[in-house]
Structure formats: structure tokens, C-alpha cells
């Protein structure tokens, strides 16, 4: 008899525990907020020396308190939120958040994927779903056919002028001048079809360095960029003998990874990079960064 009573008590205890757990789980699920962002995702760009602002909003399905708006580390150097802490969030009430995008003069040209998260100040590791996905492009993107690159506008209006001659493409990048009167050429590319798929060194020797002095005397040095471009960088004085015979040379010569296209890149004589705080060495680094951003 005692065994029967004990068995009944254990069954009842199990039912109570199961029922209590069910209520707890239901209560926990009900307390888990659903976050809805407007817009649901962002894709923005900002150039070095540029600042821009925009607004997003979010709505929670439940009341929240002491909410921290967290920008992931990848985006943090370029994106600030206002406010960053919200003491009270009421269910169903949209909360507006100001986003300020800014990039320093030496910001690398790149595309960054990240998120803005909502977290509990009391439990810093607790993130409310769902975060706001953001794709941030540092620099303005120019695309032509299957060729694209990023470049800085320094917050000025810009334009790209494209000309195609004999199968080769010329691209001239122009900014509105400091006086605001007209557009001034800053730098440009020529894309040559490398019909024989020569290596960069071989093409350079056949078409530019006809005397063999430019590479042997250190006027140009070879670099390989992370995007796969081989680049000859103007890194030393040009021998007078070469200038006398063949005239000026470009700042950079590069070849695409498949060797199909030769890229010749130079600053324009009338460029205004110095106005934006770029000395000659910084200008070289900037142009290399533009080359590194190229995609084919």
C-alpha cells in the first residue's frame, strides 16, 4: 500500500514540475522581445573627410529598460549612434536613432558588413534579436562593365568621365574645385587590353622601359596587392636619359590577375589632394588604396 501511495505522489510531483516548467518556458518566451527595424537593413557609403547623418527606428514587442545600442567593432570607427543608451522602451512604440557616419582622411577604402545591436545594460552579453544589418562602403564606388573601384570624394561632388578608343578605356575622376566653379581632374586610369597576356614586367619592358633603366635603377618597384594586382610603383628618380628619349611616365602600372588588362594610373597635374591634407607620400598611399579596391 505504501508503495502505491509513494508511486502516486511521485507521478503527481512529476506533473507539477512539468506544469511549472511549461509555465516558466511560456513566460520566458512571452518576455523575449521581437525587434523590428525600419528600414530592415542599410547600405550606405561615406568618403574620407566626409560626414553624413541619417535616421533609423526600431520597435520592440515587449517593454524594455536600460537598453544599450551597440555598434559592432568593425563599424565603430565610422558610425556613432544618438542616443547610445535608452532608459525605457515601450512595446509597440517606435524609437528613433540618429546615425552619424564619418571617415578620417586616412580611412582605408573598403566595404564593411556589420550590425547595430540592442543589448541589456544589466546583462551585457544579452542581445535582443534582431540586429540591424549594415553594409558600409568607405569611398564612392565607380563601376563600368565588369570593372569597379572605390575612391574618396572628400565630401565634394564628383563625376567620372569615360572614353573608349580602339578598345582601350580611359577613366577620368573629377571633383568640384575648391572654388566651386568647375570640375577639376584629380586622377585617371587607362585600361589597355593585354592581348598577348604578358607579365607586367615583360609588358613594361616592351612598352615603357625600353632602355631597361627604370626597373634596374630603382625608378619603379614591384608590389603585389591583396586583390591580386601586380603593380609597378614609381618609387625613385627617373633617369634623364629616359625622359629625353621617351618623355614622362605614369605613377603606377598594374596588371589584372588573369593578365587580360594593363592598368596605367596617374594623378592629374591639376589635382587638389594637397588641399585635403595629402602630402606626396600620402597621395601615393591613397592611389595604391584605390588600386587595391579594384575588382574585375
Spans of at least 5 consecutive residues whose pLDDT stays below 50 are 4-13, 15-30
Radius of gyration, rounded?
Answer: 29 Å
Oligomer class: single chain
Q: For the terminal residues, how far apart are their CA atoms?
A: 84 Å
Give a short account of the largest sheet.
7 strands, antiparallel
Whole-number total of structural domains: 2
- Please tally the β strands and state the result: 18
The helix content is 10-25%
Order of helices and strands: HEEEEEEEEEEEEEEHHEEHEEH
Shape: elongated
Average of per-residue pLDDT values:
89
| Sheet with most strands: strand arrangement | 12-13-14-18-17-16-15
Describe what you observe in this structure.
This protein has two domains: 35-138, Immunoglobulin-like; 141-292. Strands 12-13-14-18-17-16-15 form a seven-stranded antiparallel sheet. The longest helix has 30 residues, at 2-31. The chain has 296 residues and is of the alpha+beta class. It is 21% helix and 43% strand. It is elongated, with a radius of gyration of 29 Å.
Amino acid at each position: 500500500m505504501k508503495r502505491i501511495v509513494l508511486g502516486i505522489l511521485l507521478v503527481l510531483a512529476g506533473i507539477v514540475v512539468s506544469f511549472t516548467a511549461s509555465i516558466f518556458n511560456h513566460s520566458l518566451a512571452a518576455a523575449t522581445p521581437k525587434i523590428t527595424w525600419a528600414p530592415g537593413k542599410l547600405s550606405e557609403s561615406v568618403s574620407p573627410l566626409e560626414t553624413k547623418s541619417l535616421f533609423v527606428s526600431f520597435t520592440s514587442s515587449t517593454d524594455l529598460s536600460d537598453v544599450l545600442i551597440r555598434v559592432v567593432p568593425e563599424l565603430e570607427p565610422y558610425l556613432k549612434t544618438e542616443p547610445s543608451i535608452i532608459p525605457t522602451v515601450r512595446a509597440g512604440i517606435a524609437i528613433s536613432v540618429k546615425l552619424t557616419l564619418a571617415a578620417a582622411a586616412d580611412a582605408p577604402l573598403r566595404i564593411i558588413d556589420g550590425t547595430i545591436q540592442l543589448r541589456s545594460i544589466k546583462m551585457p552579453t544579452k542581445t535582443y534579436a534582431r540586429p540591424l544589418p549594415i553594409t558600409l562602403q568607405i569611398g564612392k564606388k565607380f563601376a563600368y562593365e565588369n570593372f569597379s573601384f572605390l575612391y574618396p570624394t572628400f565630401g565634394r561632388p564628383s563625376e567620372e568621365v569615360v572614353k573608349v578608343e580602339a578598345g582601350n578605356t580611359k577613366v577620368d575622376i573629377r571633383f568640384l574645385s575648391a572654388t566651386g566653379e568647375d570640375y577639376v581632374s584629380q586622377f585617371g586610369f587607362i585600361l589597355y587590353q593585354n592581348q598577348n597576356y604578358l607579365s607586367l614586367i615583360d609588358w613594361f619592358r616592351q612598352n615603357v622601359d625600353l632602355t631597361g633603366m627604370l626597373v634596374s635603377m630603382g625608378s619603379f618597384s614591384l608590389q603585389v596587392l591583396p586583390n591580386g594586382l601586380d603593380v609597378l610603383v614609381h618609387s625613385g628618380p627617373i633617369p634623364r636619359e629616359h625622359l629625353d628619349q621617351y618623355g614622362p611616365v605614369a605613377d603606377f602600372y598594374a596588371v589584372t590577375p588573369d593578365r587580360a588588362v594593363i592598368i596605367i594610373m596617374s594623378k592629374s597635374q591639376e589635382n587638389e589632394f594637397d588641399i585635403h591634407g595629402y602630402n606626396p607620400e600620402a597621395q601615393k598611399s591613397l592611389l595604391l588604396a584605390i588600386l587595391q579596391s579594384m575588382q574585375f
